[in-house]
Amino acid sequence: MATIEITSFGYLHEAPPSVDLLVDLRRHFRDPHVSPELRYMTADDAPVRQAVMGTAGVRQLVEATAAAVDAMASGPSAGVVTVATGCAGGRHRAPTVAREVARRLVDAGHAVIVRHRDLDKPVVQR
């Protein structure tokens, strides 16, 4: 099995990483940042994870992303498969989805490395 590297990030901090598969969560899924009680939390906090995973369509996207990565890893080329999940600030949606995709891939037998590029950066004021 190929190694999978997943990076979560925020578009408002710097350019997205160069990867094999990029999942942009900004337009189609509600941003927990708009809720004052969640704004200063991160994907390390259960209320944020629950809000993200409770958003319509997110579970299906996680499953589809994991399936796409599994297919890429099954191809004839050896090497690492790189994936990135991006949202506005990189603190809520992107890291939650990255962790859920990683969990499914680990359950499928893949070696997975997850990095959160912007999780610990300050909240973007917008």
Shape: globular
What is the structural class?
alpha/beta
Order of helices and strands: EEHHHEHE
So how many helices? 4
Short description:
The chain has helices spanning 36-39, 46-53, 58-73, 93-107, and strands at 3-10, 21-24, 81-87, 111-116. The protein contains four helices and four strands.
Describe the protein in words:
With 126 residues, this protein is of the alpha/beta class. It is globular. It is built from four helices and four strands.
Key features of this structure:
about 130 residues, alpha/beta, four-stranded parallel beta sheet, about 35% helix, about 20% strand
List the helices and strands and how they pair.
Elements: E1 3-10, E2 21-24, H1 36-39, H2 46-53, H3 58-73, E3 81-87, H4 93-107, E4 111-116
Parallel strand pairs: 1-3, 1-4, 2-3
Helix pairs in contact: 3-4
